[in-house]
Amino acid sequence: GAAKNEGNAVRFFNSEMQVEVTRRTRIETALRKALRQGSLNFHLQSQVDESGRIFGMEALLRWHDPELGQVAPSDFIPVAETCGLIVPLGEWVIERACEMLASWQSDPLMSTLTLAINISPRQFHNERFVDHAVKCLEKNQIDATKLELEVTEGLLIENVAATVDKMDRLRQLGIRFSLDDFGTGYASLGYLKRLPLTQLKIDQSFVRDLLVDANDEAIVRTILALGHSLNLRVLAEGVETDLQAERLREMGCRFFQGYFFSRPQPEPNWREQLLLTQGSDDKPGVRPADDH
Ligand code: C2E
Ligand code: MG
Ligand code: MG
Ligand code: MG
């Protein structure tokens, strides 16, 4: 009867919860160890302009655990956010990014590139965040305008005035801010003008069906118009086909990122690839091998 069904539903729910708790605990323990042992790394994905020229890279965390195998950021970043590991993890990301930018300064192939890193809300709101970032910039003597922080609308759930103030302080040092996954969050448009942003990234969910879904096309047009009228650069992410790139270009988009241009790949591959394409007419985005 009803009571029995209810009982089953509760047991089922509990066992699913149990599986989820176990999964999170395993990820947390393994991630703590990975941080200690230095077994995390980045892959870089190019960001290109309308002529196909690579102007920047986005650093994306990659983690291979001996027992869990390859773990995707979408699986471990949320865990790191809830258990607090995002703070040391995020500090490691900034340190590595600054070291990478420093190593690029003397390399004519890499020295013009910007490097974008992703910053989680909890990491940003940590009281040490600004001081730590400043320390990393100084220690590595890098040009702060080459460092771009990709933040999301989730940042604005907490004290907006304090958030804007923190962003302003970093922006004054030269650091750029890009609003990632734009259109998927719930920030009011009023906040947009208060944030010291340089770029909006159109979320890949709107790019995916751009050619077949009139609603997605309308949303992309709206984001382009909004961004451009606020004097922001607008970059489309998740561009997978030439037709998507072409349509985006027709719509006035001038900055792109996605598998059509390149998969995320280890830094040394990029040095080789940039060396090969430099000076030739080839589009520097010929599809390299998958990273997974
Ligand atoms: P994101 O910052 O929006 O990064 C874009 C994601 O889309 C990346 O997934 C990238 O590999 C993937 N991608 C790029 N081009 C395409 C494409 O053409 N098609 C499709 N389907 N996907 C594409 P990834 O590397 O798995 O990262 C997922 C998310 O994890 C990132 O989303 C970001 O929010 C987070 N993340 C990655 N690295 C870090 C990090 O160092 N710190 C923090 N806090 N978050 C990170
Ligand atoms: Mg990003
Ligand atoms: Mg994104
Ligand atoms: Mg994302």
Explain the overall architecture:
The N and C termini lie far apart (48 Å). This protein has helices spanning 2-37, 73-83, 86-104, 121-125, 129-140, 160-172, 189-192, 204-208, 214-229, 242-250, 267-277, and strands at residues 40-49, 54-65, 69-71, 114-118, 147-151, 176-182, 199-202, 233-236, 255-256. The protein has 292 residues and is α/β, with parallel strands linked by helices. It has an 8-stranded mixed beta barrel with strand order 1-2-4-5-6-7-8-9, surrounded by 4 helices. The chain binds ligand C2E and magnesium ion (MG) (3 copies). Residues 180-181, 201, 203, 237 line the site of one magnesium ion (MG).
List keywords for this structure.
single chain, 292 residues, alpha/beta, eight-stranded mixed beta barrel, 9 strands, globular, disordered C terminus, binds ligand C2E, binds magnesium ion, Diguanylate cyclase
In short:
The chain is an alpha/beta fold.
Order of helices and strands: HEEEHHEHHEHEHEHHEHEH
Low-confidence stretches: 1-5, 280-292
Report the sheet with the most strands, covering strand number, pairing sense and barrel closure. 8 strands, mixed, barrel
Strand content: 15-25%
Secondary structure blueprint with pairings:
Elements (H helix, E strand, L loop, with lengths): L1 H36 L2 E10 L4 E12 L3 E3 L1 H11 L2 H19 L9 E5 L2 H5 L3 H12 L6 E5 L8 H13 L3 E7 L6 H4 L6 E4 L1 H5 L5 H16 L3 E4 L5 H9 L4 E2 L10 H11 L15
Parallel strand pairs: 2-4, 4-5, 5-6, 6-7, 7-8, 8-9
Antiparallel strand pairs: 1-2, 1-9, 2-3
Helix pairs in contact: 1-2, 3-5
The site of one magnesium ion (MG) has 5 residues, from β6.
